[in-house]
Amino acid sequence: MLDDRKKKILQAIVEEYIETAEPVSSKALVEKRNINYSSATIRNDMAELEKIGLLDKPHTSAGRIPSAQGYRYYVDKLINSNDISMKEIKYIQSQLETKVNQIEDLTKIATTTLSEITHYTSVGIGPKASEQNIQEVKFILLGSRLLMAIILTETGLIKETIIKFNEDITQEQVDTITYLFNNKLHGKPLTQIDKPMEEYMHSEMSNILNVIKPILEQINKAINEDVPVYMEGADKSFELPEFKSLDIAKSFVNILDTDKTKQMIDILNSSNNEDEINVYIGDENVDKSLKDFSIVTFKHKEKGKDLGTIAIIGPTRMDYSKVISAMKYISKQLNKDKLLESGEDDEDGKKK
Amino acid sequence: MLDDRKKKILQAIVEEYIETAEPVSSKALVEKRNINYSSATIRNDMAELEKIGLLDKPHTSAGRIPSAQGYRYYVDKLINSNDISMKEIKYIQSQLETKVNQIEDLTKIATTTLSEITHYTSVGIGPKASEQNIQEVKFILLGSRLLMAIILTETGLIKETIIKFNEDITQEQVDTITYLFNNKLHGKPLTQIDKPMEEYMHSEMSNILNVIKPILEQINKAINEDVPVYMEGADKSFELPEFKSLDIAKSFVNILDTDKTKQMIDILNSSNNEDEINVYIGDENVDKSLKDFSIVTFKHKEKGKDLGTIAIIGPTRMDYSKVISAMKYISKQLNKDKLLESGEDDEDGKKK
DNA sequence: TTTAGCACTATGTATCTCCGAGTGCTAAAC
DNA sequence: GTTTAGCACTCGGAGATACATAGTGCTAAA
Q1: Are A297 and A125 in contact (CB under 8 A)?
Q2: Selection from B184, B208, B204, B207 nearest residue B196 by Cα
Q3: Which of A4, A100, A88, A89 is nearest to A45 (CA)?
Q4: Do B346 and A164 make contact, defined as CB atoms within 8 angstroms?
Q5: CA distance A272 to A191
Q6: Pick from B249, B345, B347: CB nearest A249
Q7: Which residues, 6+ apart, have CB-to-CB distance to A38 below 8 Å?
Q8: Which residues, in sequence order, are CB contacts of B295 under 8 Å at separation 6+?
Q9: What CA–CA distance (Å, rounded) separates A296 from A280?
């Protein structure tokens, strides 16, 4: 356990370093951070903080910088998690009020807003379709051989896909299929879409057998493929002094490349704690290419269903206080709004 | 007009520089590029090529590099536009055969494939909705106050949006609206969706008046907002030696940031020539932040309708021969396939 | 327990030198 | 007239050296 002065010194070093990106000297703490002890006293404490592993020293004649553990201590015990101004609150509110066309848009807007408030790069991932339960399935015949399937989930997520057939489809067939799907699939998870249909595959209704199969195939494909990813403010990161190091810049681009999106999704989805903000500092990240970065994530859920994940990626020297505060506020707003239900309930009594 | 030897020398310099990223010396041309003249002769020619502005010299005691004009001459007159291997052709074909859920997916696949073949960053932009003509409009009541509008265009592009109402909507209203929309809008451009509807706004059908307005609003929003952008292989660019310069790396990230997407869209959409490959070298680009880059674009059209634009962005020292060849081949394939029609024609005789 | 004072140390920067690759030009060769 | 050999010249990059400086660690005194 640290005594008060050491805590104060650690906090001051972290915050000063976050601000200046330069190793912090004992003198700087006295002059800029109002620590009312002599630089010598502070130096003694700094030496001890270094011994317990909370500070690092780039070299003998430089100041100190926080270690990953130091940031961790700061985030866990010293942080001000209400570091958000009235102006920022207003801005967030105005952004979240924007009308959305789709549920996914909400995550997108939150991602953008977060990047604008924090000046870090933010990444958003749309809802994972596979976790959702089916509310309703609609089929629309777009042409004699072209069928559009629209799946609405209980949380309002919409998946649509187009199926092409080699032979003509009749409206009667479509009606039958629509009836079957909605009868069998309501409330079932999207991943299990083909299980309940299988019995029909082997049933007497041979006239739709050859129609159902391609539909299931295509729907399955649509569910598993499409996880929208939004990235905002990548250019902002490049203004940071850490990006003067080409290695860091490179690994950052590697992380954000669309190809590597799946990696990112894995990283973010491993943060499972519902409605809670997770912070991964430097080498706490499982992925080693993230060792020089910190990630702050938040998973937006409603009734246990994934509505999207939002993350901020920045250098370990990140303004945790600001990032966590902003994310906390946005997450609270997202949960308060319950936007999904605003216009669709009370139809069949299934929802309260 | 250049004599044959000068052409050969220019070509060799461009190609050698593309390969090595080092200023090319007269000696290198003799030894590595089999120019069967003495280095002195070559030096004389290089001096002349520099005088006409086709070559640059970083400093007195360095070799030559092509100027923007030099690249331009190379691209226009010296290039081998069939620089594509059997293996690459096979790969492109296999990729384009992938089943697509939506028309947009085609652009996406082409974008990815192009980046993989050329090893440069590629950017794809989906079809511009505003240029499309309406084929059919469907409305689906998802709840008592939630309506989904699906617009199918003549080229197969699908736009869908959700409209929320403050009061309940009946199926009869939806049917009326569906009839109205399809009656009035078939074959009209998407941008003019509200013009033909206006007369109804002032007509006797007051029971749907308050329904049409929010629908038009929301549809207009969906049309104008949603231009999907795909980016592939940004990390590949960072492996290039030019990205050792932090300024170049920075301006590159600036270009590709989602925020600046609209700039990019403008840039790409200014390349209007249908089914033709456009090359913008260095400062030929209107946007000054692109002065160190070259862009090769191709606009995929069918019957005059925009189906998407694909671009390769790389340093001015780009392998134009390979990029142009690959793009040419992909564009040919895209046009040959006419994928859009494969299953939807002959329904009502409107299409041949 | 805190502080003043001082020796010590690593780094960044500036300056200088030296090397070599490459040119431009002149004069000779073809 | 065209090509080539030869050579002086130039510039940038790599290393070496020195210097100034910011910061520490430690000792001894307050």
Answers
A1: no
A2: B184
A3: A4
A4: no
A5: 19
A6: B249
A7: A30
A8: B267, B268, B279, B280, B285, B311, B312, B313
A9: 6
pLDDT value for B132: 78
Copy the structure tokens of residue B190: 């998407």
Instruction: Collect all residues of chain B within an 8 Å Cβ-Cβ radius of residue A254.
Output: 235, 238
Question: Within chain A, which residue ranges are assigned CATH 3.30.390.60?
Answer: 130-223
- Interchain pair A101, B221: CB under 8 A: yes
Q: Please determine, looking at this structure, whether the domain spanning A4-78 carries the CATH number 3.30.470.10.
A: no
Which nucleotide is the nearest neighbour of A29, by CA and C1'?
Answer: D23
Type and span of the H or E element at B125: strand B121-125
The more confidently predicted of residues B340 and B219 is: B219
For residue B22, the model assigns a pLDDT of 93
Give the residue from A210, A178, A212 showing the smallest Cα distance to A195. Answer: A212
Please indicate whether, in this complex, the C-beta atoms of B160 and A158 are within 8 angstroms of each other.
yes
Contact between residue B9 and residue B45 where contact means Cβ atoms under 8 Å apart = yes
For chain B, where do the domains classified as CATH 3.30.450.40 start and end? 86-128+227-341
Residues of chain A with CATH 1.10.10.10: 4-78
Three-state DSSP at A146 gives: strand
Positions of strand D less than 7 angstroms from a protein CB: 3-6, 9-12, 21-27
With a 7 Å cutoff on the CB, does A59 touch strand C?
yes
H helix and E strand count, chain B? 13, 10
The answer to whether B299 CB sits below 7 Å from nucleic acid chain C is: no
Select the residue of B143, B231, B343 nearest A258 (Cβ to Cβ): B231
Residue in chain A lying closest to B243 (CA): A246
Angstrom distance, B103 CA to C20 C1': 58
Q: Is A346 on the interface with B (CB under 8 A)?
A: yes
A234 lies within 8 A of chain B by CB = yes
| Beta bridge partners of residue B232, listed in sequence order | B122
Q: How far away is chain A from the Cα of B327, in angstroms, using its nearest Cα?
A: 21
Would you say B253 and A121 are in contact if contact means Cβ atoms under 8 Å apart? Answer: no
Tell me what pLDDT residue B28 has: 93
* CATH code of the domain occupying B130-223: 3.30.390.60
Q: Least CA distance to A143: which residue of chain B?
A: B344
Architecture of domain A86-128+227-341 in CATH?
Answer: 2-Layer Sandwich (3.30)
Q: Which nt has its C1' nearest the CA of A37?
A: C2
Burial (0-12, 13-18, 19+ Cβ within 10 Å), B36: exposed
- Tokens (6 digits) for B344: 């939807």
Going by C-alpha positions, the residue among B305, B341, B337, B311 that lies closest to residue B128 is B305
Q: Is the CB of A23 under 7 A from strand D?
A: yes
Token pair 């520099």 is at which residue? B50
List the pLDDT tens digit at each of the 352 positions of chain A. 788 899 999 999 999 999 999 999 999 999 899 899 999 999 999 999 999 999 999 988 889 999 999 999 999 999 988 899 999 999 999 998 876 666 677 888 999 999 999 999 998 888 777 777 888 888 887 777 778 888 878 776 777 787 878 788 888 888 888 888 888 778 778 777 776 666 665 655 556 667 777 788 778 877 776 677 788 888 888 889 998 887 888 888 877 765 556 667 677 766 666 668 889 999 888 888 888 999 999 888 776 677 788 999 999 999 999 999 999 999 888 877 554 444 333 334 333 3
CB contact under 8 A, A257 and B250: no
B241: closest chain A residue by CA: A246
